Structures are given as C-alpha cells and as structure tokens.
Amino acid sequence: MKILQSIMYFPAACVLCFTVYLFVCYRDSVSVKKEAPVVASFTISPEVPATIRFCGKDVDISRYNVKEGLDRELSSFTYFHSSTMLLIKRANRYFPIIEPVLKANGIPDDFKYLAVIESNLDPRATSPAHAAGVWQFLESTGKSYGLKVTATVDERRHVTKSTEAACRYLKEAYDLYGDWIAVAASYNAGMGRISGQMEKQGELSVLNLYLAEETTRYPYRIFAAKQIFENPYKYGFVLHAENLYSPIDCSEVITDSDIPDLAVFAREKGITYNDLKFFNPWLKDTKLLTGGVRYKILIPNKNKLYYSSSNFYVHDKRWIAR
Questions:
Q1: How far apart are CA 255 and CA 295, in angstroms?
Q2: Sign of the C-alpha dihedral, residues 310, 311, 315, 317?
Q3: What is the mean pLDDT of residues 284-292?
Q4: Predicted TM-score (pTM) of this structure
Q5: What distance in Å separates the CA atoms of residue 129 and residue 171, rounded to the nearest whole number?
Q6: Cα–Cα distance for residue pair 291/286, rounded to 1 Å
Q7: Tell me, what's the pLDDT at 5?
C-alpha cells in the first residue's frame, strides 16, 4: 500500500517542482530584463590614467578638477568617433611637416596636439572670429609673428610657415612662464589674460586657475588628444595602414612674378585647380600678386595622387591595429 501511495504522489510532486521551477525562471527573466540595457551597445567610461607626461614632465591627475577635466575630454574624444578617427588619419599627412619645425625651434613635440585641437589639422579651417589655418592665427597676430596676409596670399594657411610662427609665439610665452602648460593655456587666452589671472588669484598653476570654460578645458583637450593618439586601440579606434591619409610628394615652383590666372597655371602644370588649392591653401585668390616676394608653389606628383599598395605610409606605428 505504501509503495502504491508513493507511486501516486510522485507525479504530483513532479508537477509541483516543475511549477516552482517555472515561477523562479519567470521571476529571474523579469529581473534580467529590468537590468538589461535598452540599446544594442554599451557605453563605457574611458580609463583616466593616474598620471600623464606632457612636454617631458609628469602631470599629477589626482586632484579632483584635473582628473575630472581630463575625464571629460577623454570621453569627448573617445565618443566623437568619426571626428577623432579623421584626426588620426590627417595626422599621418601633417605631423611629418609639423614635427621637424617644432624640433628645429626647440618646442616640445607634444605641441603638435595643440594644432590638432585648434583646427582639426585642416589648413583651410576658419573660425567664427576669422582665425585661420592649422594654428588658427588671427590676421593681426599672424602678421605680428611674421606671416604675410595680402589680397592674394594668406600664410596663416601655409602649414610650414604658420608652424614657424607658432613656434615664435610659444618660445616667447615660455620665456615669460617657464611652464609649458601655462604656455598652452596662453595660446587660447593670450599671455595678458593668463598673467593677469595668476596675479589676481595668487595661483601659479594654470590647472588651478578660475578661467573661462574654453580656456579651462584647453590643456585637458591637449592631454586627451595626446593620450588617444598614443593609445588609439585602447580607446576603441582600429585603423590599418590603408586607412591613413598618405603624404603626397610635391615638386616646387619658385616665383616672384605675378600669376594672373591660377587655373591656367594649374593646367600648365598638369594638375587641376582644386589640386593647386589643396596643396597650397595659402593661395587666397584666383591669382597671385607677389609684390616682388619669392613664393614656393607646391605641385603634387601626379603619380602619387592615387592610392595604391605602394603608398601606405605609416608615420606612427601605434596608430595601426596589430
């Protein structure tokens, strides 16, 4: 009899256990659904390093305003995916021009990242305040540091010459401050404003000054650009050699004579007017009036205007995923 009763209770017990199992699974599935993300991907806060090096010196990131300032700019660069990736691609073309000029003038190599944040490495960039070129000089400032700006010439858009002018400013600012972070901030706000705020606030560290938001963010944007350019894969940027913009070999035409029609000049050299303007963005007009001054005009090698397996130049191996 007991055996018979056990046999009769067994199915009932199985049904009860199965019901409990279903209930627990349902409850767990509801809990999982509540915790699951509602988008198809995760957004992860980028890692803020404990310290970084800028211009050969360690920068302590532990203070709240410094850590949070860098965190903000790292997040911005990391999640403006297309813009940041474009910057790395352009750097492959323009860093080989900028770096030797900085070195020749005794300016730390890290200042190439100032050009990155100023103009997105676009020689044709113009700000709402009419600053122009890779280093974003105002016309009056550019002239004061040796750049020619005329009706047909704007050397603020000449990558080499504007970099030389930027070096003159940076050296002057370093002579005043003896600190490269202060020099960087002054490039945004001006030496007068930085010096005035240091005196008023009794604070020598630019990172601890109360400044306009744009200037406050400025050094951190440089730090963040450096961090990502040196560790692109770590921050989610995967590039291959063929993705980078290759430097294009050019020959030089030196002239001190006027060129009345640059489109005709370009055709005579076997290139398009667009090519002429792209490689010589300092040519401001449809003509060139030299005033007797000698100018070097770059003429791109026609065979290098097309991508092939032979022109995948990589300026910095860290930019390439392995």
A1: 5
A2: negative
A3: 97
A4: 0.86
A5: 24
A6: 16
A7: 47
